[in-house]
Amino acid sequence: MAKKGKLAIGVDLGGTSLYAAVVDTETGQIYGQAKRKARAELGAVGVTKRVVKTVERAILRSGVKRKRLIGVGVGVPGPIDAEGGLVIRLTNLGPTWDGFPLAQTLERRLKLPVVIENDVNVGAVGEHCFGAGRGASDMVALFVGTGLGGGVILDGKLRTGFRGSAGEVGHMLLRADGDPCGCGEHGHAEAYASRTAIERSIRKAIAAGEPSMLAETIEVEGRPLLTSKYIQRAYEAGDAVAVNAIRSAQYYLGLLIADCVNLLDPEAVVVGGGVLERMGDAYLEPVRGYARQHFLNKHAMETVRIVAAELGDSSGAVGAAVQAVRRLTDGA
Amino acid sequence: MAKKGKLAIGVDLGGTSLYAAVVDTETGQIYGQAKRKARAELGAVGVTKRVVKTVERAILRSGVKRKRLIGVGVGVPGPIDAEGGLVIRLTNLGPTWDGFPLAQTLERRLKLPVVIENDVNVGAVGEHCFGAGRGASDMVALFVGTGLGGGVILDGKLRTGFRGSAGEVGHMLLRADGDPCGCGEHGHAEAYASRTAIERSIRKAIAAGEPSMLAETIEVEGRPLLTSKYIQRAYEAGDAVAVNAIRSAQYYLGLLIADCVNLLDPEAVVVGGGVLERMGDAYLEPVRGYARQHFLNKHAMETVRIVAAELGDSSGAVGAAVQAVRRLTDGA
């Protein structure tokens, strides 16, 4: 293989697993990758050691010489201080991460420059460079999973905002004084369009006595079994509770997309995350209709591309590698 | 006076009046200005002739030689095709404007290059260059009047979007399936936070029999007298109907600002328009509180500047002149 492009390592630091890949940031090609459990209980220092091992293994597997690597980009599941290389807080990984100097700690161990960024933001970069957003100058990415996150790309560059907290689409308001959101407020998109919202609707309907094939899988001996797989199966079987819950989430996702389009008028909106990966473009078709109804510029109806993400799990690591090269070589 | 800066003419083409000013686009200083009634009933051709006369008078009054002028920028109250110099539609000015080649028509008569842009977008540019948004790299402007419009400035430049329709903040959703909006849809910000929304609340409360000092001024012999002046007076006197209507509009304006902050994380949010000009910063104080409650990044509480516009009526013309110079000299 001719490894000619600008090579960097992209890391996806998740609550349950760590993933590292050596990425050709000009083609998106992955030369070597490694994955391990995050083991969040080890705390910031312990997990960071595991990140180092994962990165070393990816380098080894790639066969790329260390001196060819421009640096390491890490996508972190929470707010960060990119300038200072600090994690601000990772709710799902525990309090030892508050203010943790992740970039410096990794730099000392890896002997490579390290750039950190929010995981959803780098996911947007990945999809923009090599996924569903290819060629779009302005793009908004939305990732629908347990939560709902997003990233904004304008003129081909990630917008991180004045305080590094742009793209918090999950906390845009869709129903004033509405359902409670994980953040403590009410009526936000995440409370209506995330996987958690779908699950909540199903539980509520079943608790209210609505018949559903999901009633029995809700909990078995205290272990919740309301997995995405079961929900999808019920939806496809036409189970009314599942269908209603998903329709509602699609409706609100459409409204959220309309908000982004009315404010920024992007060329493309890319939708990814667990829910989309499982159900694919079929999930998006009704969403497009709901969104278009609220576009002020009706011309946007034909021209805004609302498309499913293409890179799946790897968008974060690929985007993190790209973002690292951009920041290390031209300060973007 | 030393007129050394880049000089251009800015025009504000409104439904009721036309305003033109010779503007030093480096300082914001106005050297000569003229105003006349729009007389919308004359149609696109007739009103354009009046624009020409208004511009000629402003040039004459400024004492600036024609060859010193880089061009003319026109702020138009509706969607435009900036590239083609075409008006798309001006709902308040009648159907003769549909597809009207405003830029070319003015160029032929004025013998100067003409740039057209949406009026609210150029208002944002004006406030950014010489008003309340001075020095902010990223800024969102919201103008609260009969309608609710906005403009987005990032890295100091106006973002017009892929189809030229960015900044349509009035049609961002705040309450799914809520009150009807002028655009035909439901639940948009304009239906809750505009002057029209305030008026509608008041009429509704009075129709429901709530006592109010505004009850008698609602209509006199078919002529509506529910003016901003009366509403403000009632509000200041503590009239419950006026207070509730304004509180509600302030609440929703706060939610809209939170949406913009959560998506774009700008340095400043500038709020202008008729309602703000009349009531000033006092109007914004509760708005700030409502907005902050929904910021995901609570640090933004201290650091996002939410400020009242400073240029009043002239922001559009000043911004149009600046935008004309930018587009004519560096294609921005």
Summarize the structure.
Chain A has 332 residues and is of the alpha/beta class. Helix content of chain A is 39%, strand content 21%.
Summarize the structure in words:
Two copies of one chain form a homodimer. Chain A has two domains: about 5-125 and about 315-330, Nucleotidyltransferase, domain 5 (2-Layer Sandwich); about 135-310, Nucleotidyltransferase, domain 5, CATH 3.30.420. Helices cover about 40% and strands about 20% of the residues of chain A. The first copy, chain A, has eleven helices and 14 strands. A five-stranded mixed sheet of chain A has the order 3-2-1-4-7. A five-stranded mixed sheet of chain A has the order 10-9-8-13-14, with helices on both faces. In chain A, strands 5-6 form a two-stranded antiparallel ribbon. In chain A, helix 3 crosses helix 11 (about 315-330). At the A-B interface, strand 9 and helix 7 of A face strand 9 and helix 7 of B.
CATH class of the largest domain in chain A: Alpha Beta
Number of E strands of chain A = 14
Uncertain residue ranges of chain A: none
Which CATH architecture of the largest domain in chain A is right? 2-Layer Sandwich
Q: Structural class given helices, strands, pairing of chain A?
A: alpha/beta
The helicity of chain A comes to 25-40%
Report the order of strands and helices of chain A: EEEHEEEHEHEEEHHEEHHEHHHEH
Q: What is the beta-strand fraction of chain A?
A: 15-25%
Tally the helices of chain A. Answer: 11
Give the largest interface.
A-B, 48 and 48 residues
**Intertermini distance of chain A:** 29 Å
Biggest sheet features of chain A: 5 strands, mixed
CATH topology call of the largest domain in chain A: Nucleotidyltransferase, domain 5
